[in-house]
Amino acid sequence: MPKPNTPEELKLLSGAPGLTSNVEAPETEADGKEPEDPIERLRKRVFKPIQEKIYRPLNGLVDRLGYPASLALFLVVVGGGWLGVRFWSNPEDAKKMLTVARYYLDARELTPPRDANTAEAVRDLINQLKNDISPANRDRPNGSFGAWTQAQMVVGLQGQGITDSIEMSKWFESQAGHCGCWHQFTNDPPHAAVTGWVLLAFSRLGVPPAAQDVEFVLESQHKPGWWGMFPGTDDPGNASTYATALSIWSLEGLLRGNLISPDRKEAVTRAVAKGRAWLLDNAVSARPGRWKDYPNGVYGQESIGISGLTLHVLHKTPGPEPSASDSYWMANLPKELPMPKDEVSSAQIVITNQIGAFVDPTHHFLLPWLVIGTADAYPKGKLSQRAQAAKLFHQIPERREAIARDLKDMPWLAAETAIALRYLRGEDVI
User: Fold this and answer.
1) Whole-angstrom Cα distance, residue 106 to residue 90?
2) Which domains does the chain carry?
3) More exposed terminus of the chain, fewer Cβ within 10 Å: N or C?
């Protein structure tokens, strides 16, 4: 049996040519260092360029920024990261948050946002009204295209090249009663709202009405400054916010258009001032941006429709700005935009000179006058309130189909809505 090699002999043999050892030596790099962990090596290869090209410039920027700017940058980075995580985990919530952010961005300006898509709803309404104002519709037996509706369509279609001012004004005068006033229907008493809208149409047509038309309005004003919807007694229960607002608005429009005879301008100016004071004094108690249709009536109904009209008239007539009313209005906006046909009806019983007790059937629509009142009060709102208003305005394009569908056979409401949307877009229609 061969004698085993000693350790020294094995060592000598391992270094001999052609001989190898069965013992593996540990692997080393060329410089004799231990090999680097491949994961660590990959991390360095990926992140080192980021450190060189992003981290260092950012660190330099942070060093140059003051504390407020550094804090703002920190909040932006943290907020952006949080929003990214939120968007990844719940896209719907993130979308809502971005929408709210849009409202606040809009609210930085003191003019209402003008959503370009609102123009499509305006175009739908204008196209409808171009057909509705056809003279052929004026003779419909139900009276739905009478002087009231025609006047509203004239105001709504300004600048469209549709209305012949001379023909239209002559037609209006042909419909006036012997009193120099207008009626809703043939057998009804003289109607202050119809008369107001017709005179407003005259002011937009640039044509002076007959002298007796203006005299009728002046003579119908009661001593405290209000008008009734129909000529009636001095009972305060007959005092109509709607009739008063439209009367002074139309008179002021004629004054501004220089359509009042010189000898009556002073009387008209006094009537407007007195009616304006009455409106300011008869807002709902402790709610300066809200009015009832009949402040002293048994069935007085408070509504955004009446209130928006009154607020607009206060903005359009001479006198101190209705700042308290604007502030209250903006602080109490609805959460959602009303539907196109939402309304409040008066149903107030008034005592007329002509036929005694009579029920006022007027419908006060919400959507048009919410838009108009909010556009007027918008600059007086706080940032959060203007953001809420922006939310309402941006809902208008979402209502486009409903507006076109619901108002198809309601030219009076289509006209009011067209007026409101055009006014919101900055057009000088009212």
Assistant:
1) 25
2) 46-106 (no CATH), 118-424 (1.50.10.20)
3) N
In tens, the pLDDT along 335-387 reads 999 999 999 988 888 888 888 888 898 999 999 999 999 999 999 999 999 99
